[in-house]
Known about the structure:
two-stranded antiparallel sheet, 2 strands, 92 residues, 2 helices
Amino acid sequence: xxxxxxxxxxxxxxxxxxxxxxxxxxxxxxxxxxxxxxxxxxxxxxxxxxxxxxxxxxxxxxxxxxxxxxxxxxxxxxxxxxxxxxxxxxxx
Length: 92
């Protein structure tokens, strides 16, 4: 489980993220996400990440773009919380 300031505790299938490790959740409805993923894939490749990891990022970008073509998208916001309302890390 990880922790996102907007969404709180984030569970994962394999449970290999510590409860106090900050994570960030990007949703497919975020219009900026394809560009973020494209840039992240390029940075990962430049940093020497395994090709399998870069391909996973690119596949995620493809899925997001496909989803966005058929669904509502918007610019990112903090409608759930304002900046001062972000949840603190567990145990902090």
